[in-house]
# Entry
Amino acid sequence: MKKSRTPLVGISQIGIAIPRHFISLEELAKKRKISPKYAIEGLGILQARIPYQTSIEDLAVKAISKIDFQDVQRFYIGTESDFDASKPFSIKILSQKLGLTIIPFQYKFACLSGLLALVSACEYCLANNGKPAIALAVDRSIYRETEPQAEITQGCAAVAMRVEMNPKLLFLDYQNFGQYGEDINDFKVPFSPFPFPEINGELTKSAYLGCQKMALEDWKKQNFEFLKSKGKSLLEFFDFFIVHSPFPKMVEWAAAMFWRHEIIKTKEHLTLADCIKTPSLFKEYKKELDGIRKLPDFQKFFSKKFKPGLKYNSFIGNAYTASIFISLISTLERAKRNQEIGINGYGSGAGSLCLRAISVIKRKFKSDLEKQLKEGRKLTIKEYEKWRKNYDFSHP
# Structure
């Protein structure tokens, strides 16, 4: 990959908005008769942001308003919270909320669609002589009370990014990404009972890891000569990795899978493809990942390259398309100029996209996300349940 092959296009500004209100997942676990250790230690989550007295349209407006958008003529939106099979709900954001007459380009591929929107924004910028674009990822995750193990992973957020030539935060090598897609029914949101999803828990874990592994392999194939010229292994080359975070512990499983695939390299007695075909096998596969997670060398690797991206996720929950960008924000707060960032997105259904990014930050980057978290208000479980009872789930 020659330096001139990909023009400098990427992210110059990031705006994020989360709901002010949150619930304690330890308290919710107790209420649902689940061990709090399952939430805190098993999943790595502490709080969930709830769209209480707000909407995701309002959050999207707040996120967009934190960046320069007045000169932008193209908005790309990734979401899986749309309730209309025909009209994109993002037209409400642009028309009703922002007073714009611009048509939104809205994507659907579960949690991956935010990353697809970002890639399209980069392509638009290059194809139109450097015109800027906005990529927006906005979602809420809502689960049935009768599925408490899923309910405690809820979350909500909106992330808006200004994409332009000669970016000020992050250069994206969007032309040489790795990809993998396969028709897997691990997760879906039927029109009825929207927005509650149908989840195959064991299958979605295997699909999450398997698709990311294949996308990473495709990235290596697409960038073989470039990686070879650097004289480093893939895990050595990237300074940071960020992956979609349904819950933080799942990111640790992904890191262990990368480690197993790139460092150990011995023949697998049980593959992720086997687990996708027979989901019950995943428990056996995970035993090997758990063994890797205990290795001191792996723990150093994870703490250095993955953990910086998990600073905020435990206090927000799974915000679907926005989750990977929440991890990007905390990584950028740690990154120095010219450091390499590997981005691995995942969307149920299922697909994964892997791309390379380079920090071009000239001075330390700091978002206002920590401030938003500190200004949050905790709901009692009684308040939360009253909200659930009165909330219009048919509308974002």
Q: What stands out?
A: The domain at 3-390 is CATH 3.40.47.10 (Peroxisomal Thiolase; Chain A, domain 1). The chain is about 40% helix and 20% strand.
